[in-house]
Amino acid sequence: MTKKFLFVLAFICLAQISVAQEPDFILFKQAELAWEVARDNLQIKNTLQALKKLADLYLKKQTVTITASPAPIPGLDPRTYYSESPYWWPDSTNPDGPFVRRDGLRYPGRFQEHKKSLIEMYNSVTTLSLAAYFFEDSSFARKARQQLKAWFVDPQTRMAPHLQYAQAVRNKSTGRPFGIIETHRFTRMLPALRLLAASGFWPAQEQQAVTQWFRQFLDWLTQSEFGQKEKMHGNNHSTWWSAQVMAIARFVKDDSLFEEVSHHVQDYLLEKQLIPPGRFPLEEKRTRSLDYVIFNLNAYAMAAQMLFVKKGFDFWHVKNSKGACLADAIQYLLPFLKQPEKWPLKQILPPRTNNVPFLFFYANQQQDSVLFKSFGQLWFSGEDHEQFLAHDPFYFLIDLLYYSKVN
Global pTM? Predict the structure, then answer.
């Protein structure tokens, strides 16, 4: 077991709550060395073995490109991301007319190839970046660099830095602002890219090329009509827009934009969305209301964690004019996570009550051992059922963080 490996585990356990002056990893901050934390920890060893096994598989896989699957839109640039909104279906009374909305039910006949490729790229890059850092292995970094180049840099295959044609609705719209949510996993990939850079196996010139793509995408997110509409829409879409912009701003080192959007989250979204005793009415309207409350809290968790890492700011206890705060939302929701059958609102599919990164970040930041135990009980209670992913590689980090804290 190398010293670097032990340092990494000490770092990710976040044992120290004191604020680093210049945090490096967006969602995580540096901590004092704690050499004994990782020794002889079977759960950590097993988690790392699982990570390495997955990374080894990605070494053998082909590089994913958006251009490999042409969109069904004549004349569309093959580098342009295209998807169709999941909850819109053919109208049985008008087969040739615009699709109609069936909230919470995904239409299996929609075009999904670009979204699948995007998620596969995320899965590959995140897994390989973590493996390159933890195992000090340049082969993992080399494969991650190849994937990054294909998706973000190569002029022949790189994704155009916009989502103008995402979540289209057949016979109705070629793209909608709601499609911006489809890149929400960037909030989890960018910390992994910081780890890839810290591995020493990612040349600065290549880092700059990827960073340039994210600067262009950030400009589109913040300046386009779609971006502005998503920012102000009000529900979980706006929360995830904010989390994405904050994470990308940290990645490209745009501190003023980070501050601007953090105020938007506090002054607009928290005010618009949350009511006592900790409810989100805009999410409660949905046919999968419990899932959407959880999804929204996970977006807030990203924003709250970034604010904590960068500024030492406890966003969880900021109250809006109604007297409600995110900590209230967690306390209100927790009994229903443990007993989802008691959720009083509509939930047409089994809820993903183990999808609770927000509970980890909150319990860890507050050093709340009771909530930390509740997180572990929920987190390991089932499989990860996120669409197209057998296991989100970012969750390896949460697993390691958790095991470092409880052992």
Answer: 0.92
